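User: Some background: our group keeps a shared notebook of sequences we're curious about, and every so often someone picks one and asks for a predicted structure to add to the entry. Today it's my turn. The entry only has the sequence so far, pasted here. Could you supply the structure so I can complete it?
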Amino acid sequence: MPRRGYTWAWLVAAAGLLAAVCVVSTAAGAASLTPVEIVRDLLAGIGIGESPLDERQHAVLVELRLPRVVMGAVVGGLLAVAGAGYQGVFRNPLADPYLLGAAGGAGLGATLVIVYGQALEAAAGSLIPVAAFAGALSGVMLAYALGSLAGGGGTATLLLAGVAVSSFLSAVQTLIQQFRIEDLRRIYSWVLGGLGRGGWDDLASIAPYALVSAAVLIASGYFLDMLALGDEKAASLGLNPTAVRLVVITAASLATACAVSVSGLVGFVGIVVPHIVRRLVGSDYRRVVPMSLLLGGVFLVLIDIVARTVISPGELPLGAVTAFLGAPFFLVILRATRNQRI
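Assistant: Of course. Here's the predicted structure to add to the notebook entry:
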């Protein structure tokens, strides 16, 4: 059993770090806002003290900075907690939220709206997250169905089915792009990921699904620890490995779909963060899952600061920055686990 004091100390420290990083990220930008002014303005919003910001500065904070920072924390947390769930289910540290067709389905859904939604141009911006969400879930359902039919839902078969479905959906997306070259800029802008397109309405639209998926994954920590013993041992202890695997994969896929529907495709978060968390708190999933949720938010908010400031006033695609940092990290993990069999 995990030591409660030890676990809570890590969780409190991670929550404090997330809050601090969010304040720093909110202060970064062309408009001059200091962390102290931001905190005072937020406290004034709940009736504590007076805000030091004028009307324009307050509008920049509430309408531009805060939605982006909160979205970064939510997306990073969802991708990281989904990664922890996948890695627990498949007992493989290389498992990633973009397995099982989630990324391919989201990309295809967004591409279809961008290319064929011209008649609804006024609403197309709001339809892209919906289409990406539906595409991600559809891709996962297809991969799981194929994996179950081909091999009874075994981990290796599900992983291979996910790779196959992702490749197929990506090929369909590429084919559509070739017929509509004029839309490539908009498509790639979404595919490369970013947090600047969303707002409070987008966060509100995914909030119920994000809360449910994160809660299910956190509650599944004990069962993931039992799965780590092997299916036979877990079954002897009264656990149904197939049912647990289905619940966790569904929740992780829902979390991934929520994230990519508002941010586009942002890779490697689900591999990098859970691996760092296991280095910090051990392999007990009752610690790994909630810590991944918090530190995933910290990770992506920090990455977004880099993306916004390196070539200011321009902005780097968020997915490109995470890939630049995550790809070498992936190779390190791959080398460390080269003798592991799925």
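Suggested note for the entry: The chain has a mean pLDDT of 83. The first helix runs from residue 4 to 27.
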